[in-house]
Specification:
Blueprint: E1 7-12, H1 18-27, E2 32-37, H2 49-67, E3 71-74, H3 77-90, E4 94-96, H4 102-108, E5 113-119, H5 120-124, H6 126-135, E6 140-146, H7 149-157, H8 164-171, E7 177-178, E8 181-182, E9 185-188, H9 197-203, E10 209-211, H10 214-225, E11 236-241, H11 249-256
Parallel strand pairs: 1-2, 1-3, 2-11, 3-4, 5-6, 5-9, 9-10
Antiparallel strand pairs: 7-8
Helix pairs in contact: 1-10, 2-3
The structure holds D-glutamic acid.
D-glutamic acid binds at residues 12-14, 16, 42-45, 76-78, 119, 122, 150, 190-192.
Length: 266
């Protein structure tokens, strides 16, 4: 394995992938990161499948040419569940995807009532249904597609006012009571949602475990590129918006919470 610090490209439609980036940087603080927020096409959850696939494959070609990553993290469930296989076929670089954490959630649930909260696109994907069939372990899995949560999460990160009631309405269908049992585990199947984890816990009608797959994704990255070498130097990070727009003050403040600042256009 090479001893040069790896170059890792992280792609999401927006700022949700920062929740994955944060975990990866904990394990490989020495790596060189390029975080790309595809704000031109945000939110991915509202794009038809074919448009999303061609958008991500086309953009990835450009990003690989410019940034030459050793590894790419698709920090987005909506994209990973539709385009990961095509990306792996098309490009030689290694890809780590983000897909709904149904297996660990179902393994951990005591009541066997599990909900999967994602974009409307993610919860209707064949990929997600197959994960439930293969790894649901007999749990009763409720799929909840949210149209608005990714947008609300970005607003919160930018420090804008968001009504609790708007978040509560979006998560309410996750809470199922049946046969004297209640949902005890909710999979956050969109990387934007851990940005709202405090609001989720506060607004939940009863306590549940919200499963964030980001630590597992970070471990997968390390499986592929290795752990931080003892002699490693300092890492670096670039943040890019596909629109090329400069980050305004509120976005800059949100990025600073992740140790990032915008550097240049794509
Ligand atoms: N962060 C994304 C995900 O994990 C998508 C949000 C969106 O762009 O709709 O699904």
């Amino acid at each position: 394995m090479s001893t040069a610090a790896p170059r890792i490209l992280v792609l999401d439609s927006g700022l949700g992938g920062l929740t994955v980036y944060r975990e990866v940087t904990k394990l490989r603080p020495d790596a060189h990161y390029v975080y790309v927020a595809d704000d031109v096409a945000f939110p991915y959850g509202r794009l038809p499948e074919d448009d999303l696939s061609s958008r991500v494959v086309g953009l990835m070609g450009q990003l690989i040419d410019v940034h030459r990553p050793d590894l790419v993290v698709i920090a987005c469930n909506t994209a990973s569940t539709i385009v990961l296989a095509q990306l792996r076929e098309r490009f030689a670089v290694r890809f780590v995807g983000t897909v709904p954490a149904i297996k660990p959630a179902c393994a951990a649930s005591q009541t066997r009532l599990v909900s999967v909260l994602g974009t409307e696109a993610t919860v209707t994907r064949e990929y997600t249904r197959k994960l439930i069939a293969d790894f649901g372990q007999g749990c009763d899995v409720t799929l909840v597609g949210s149209r608005r949560l990714a947008v609300l999460a970005e607003a919160v990160l930018r420090g804008e006012a968001v009504e609790d009631a708007d978040i509560a309405d979006e998560i309410a269908p996750c809470f199922v009571a049946r046969g004297g049992l209640r949902t005890d585990t909710v999979v956050m199947a969109c990387t934007h949602y851990p940005l709202l984890d405090r609001q989720f816990s506060r607004l939940a009608p009863w306590p549940v475990t919200f499963v964030d797959p980001a630590p597992a994704i970070a471990r997968r990255v390390v499986d592929l590129i290795g752990a931080r070498p003892a002699q490693a130097g300092e890492g670096s990070a670039d943040f890019l918006l596909t629109s090329g727009k400069p980050a305004n003050a509120t976005l800059a403040a949100g990025l600073a919470r992740f140790g990032l600042r915008q550097t240049s256009p794509v």
